[in-house]
Amino acid sequence: MDKKFNVLTLDGGGSKGIYSLGILHEVEAKFKSPLANHFDLFYGTSTGAIIAMALAQGKTVEYIKKLYPK
After folding, report:
1. I need a surface site. Which of 5, 34, 60, 61 has the fewest CB within 10 A?
2. Backbone angles phi, psi at 10, to 5 degrees
3. What residue ranges of the chain have pLDDT lower than 50?
4. C-alpha separations of 23 from 2, 13, 16 in Å
5. 3-state SS of 49-66?
6. What is the pTM of this model?
7. Helix, strand, or coil (residue 22)
8. What is the reported pLDDT for 3?
């Protein structure tokens, strides 16, 4: 069993979610596809859990960014 199991973990902290989304946007741009295609498990706390849930459903980071107020 050499298959890798990739986990993306995200922390909470309210406004830190916006910071996380900025980084995830760059990672997604490198992959050139939604992060759900590259991770087997998404885990988060607080706002990180909200982002993780959306990513696990195949939503793009750009879509998730629109859910957060400016």
Report:
1. 5
2. -130, 135
3. none
4. 28, 15, 11
5. HHHHHHHHCCCCHHHHHC
6. 0.88
7. helix
8. 85
Residues 65, 70: Cα–Cα separation, whole Å: 9
Residue whose structure tokens are 């946007």: 25
**Count of C-beta atoms within a 10 Å radius of residue 39:** 18
β-strand partners of 10: 44
Give the whole-angstrom CA distance, residue 48 versus residue 13: 8
Burial of 17 (0-12, 13-18, 19+ CB in 10 A): buried
The rounded distance, in Å, linking the Cα atoms of 6 and 8 is 7
Which pairing describes strands 41-44 and 7-10: parallel, antiparallel, or unpaired?
A: parallel
**Are the CB atoms for 34 and 24 separated by under 8 Å?**
no
